[in-house]
Design brief:
Elements lengths: L33 H26 L4 H6 L10 H11 L4 H18 L4 E4 L2 E4 L1 H5 L14 H16 L1 H4 L8 H8 L7 H10 L12 H11 L21 H8 L10 H11 L4 E2 L5 E2 L2 H4 L1
Antiparallel strand pairs: 1-2, 3-4
Helix pairs in contact: 3-6, 3-9, 8-9, 10-12
Length: 293
């Protein structure tokens, strides 16, 4: 069976042959400039993303047309607390609505909570320390965010500020399930919010947010997954038209979906196939380009 490869527009990485040079004495260790370090980190991320795309393109035929039709995923390694705050803002709202709420919240924090926002171009960071000292979470209501989410943001700030080793100083050794467990102990933070942190802050490549309706809708569109006929009717007396979370999990681990590899990237393309806009961690809205052509 012939191998399938990404179309030419994805192949922007070229290799160059280099001559072997004799071994030399290693120079003294010198810290890399920040700009160089950022470029190397970006190259590393792009290599991982490219490997994921190439694997899924070859292994999952139904994904090929989706990959060809949409821009590549945009997962950056970002500050965990900042993305957690963004994910709380994004809860149960459309991407377009969230894209309006986020800059409003940033403006409120910059004007009302000095020191809570730090800008280091091109990134923006939310500092939990000043935010933790807010006496009344209702201060954030000026951004148009519901009271319950304002309280969740402030409580998360207090937890991150008081227990940085428990909530903030994470590295690659911490398991995804442990991240979800710790975050879900916070008020107003559920599995979906924790999954957004894993995907958009920690760049974990095997996250499947089955609680996201857009992801489940994408599986119905791309893989023709059907709703569970045994599922109980909803409050409106209508059966769900989407596959159940359990059905999506089971299918995602099968050979038909790449044997459960790179599920973060699969989830991204499920959003795209469902016609959903996607937010990236800096608050930028990435529209569904295919639907606007």
């Amino acid at each position: 069976m012939p191998a399938h490869h990404l179309s030419a527009k994805w192949r922007q990485v070229k290799t160059k042959r280099t001559r072997k040079t004799p071994a030399t004495v290693a120079p003294k260790s010198v810290a890399l400039p920040e700009t160089v370090r950022q470029r190397l980190e970006q190259a590393r991320r792009e290599a991982i993303d490219f490997a994921a795309l190439e694997y899924l393109y070859a292994s999952v035929p139904p994904l090929r047309s989706v990959i060809d039709a949409h821009p590549p995923p945009h997962f950056l390694a970002c500050d965990v607390f900042t993305v957690l705050v963004q994910a709380i803002v994004w809860q149960q709202v459309s991407a377009r609505a969230a894209a309006k709420l986020w800059p409003r919240l940033v403006e409120v924090l910059e004007t009302q909570v000095p020191g809570s926002i730090r800008r280091s171009m091109p990134h923006l960071y939310v500092n939990p320390g000043p935010l933790a000292s807010i006496p009344d979470p209702a201060l954030l209501r000026a951004a148009g965010i519901p009271q319950s989410r304002c309280a969740a943001i402030v409580e998360a700030a207090r937890a991150f500020h008081a227990k940085p080793d428990l909530y903030h100083n994470w590295n690659d050794s911490i398991e995804d399930d442990e991240v979800v467990r710790r975050l879900c102990c916070l008020r107003g933070v559920g599995e979906w919010t924790a999954h957004m942190v894993l995907m958009f802050a920690m760049r974990r490549m095997n996250v499947l947010p089955v609680g996201d309706l857009g992801v489940r809708r994408g599986f119905a569109v791309v893989f023709d997954l059907k709703p569970d006929a045994r599922r109980e009717q909803g409050a409106a007396g209508r059966r769900s038209v989407l596959p159940s979370p359990d059905a999506v999990k089971k299918f995602a681990s099968s050979a038909a979906c790449g044997n459960g590899r790179f599920l973060t990237v699969v989830s991204y393309y499920m959003w795209r196939a469902a016609g959903a806009d996607v937010l990236v961690p800096d608050g930028t809205l990435v529209p569904d380009l295919a639907s606007t052509v």
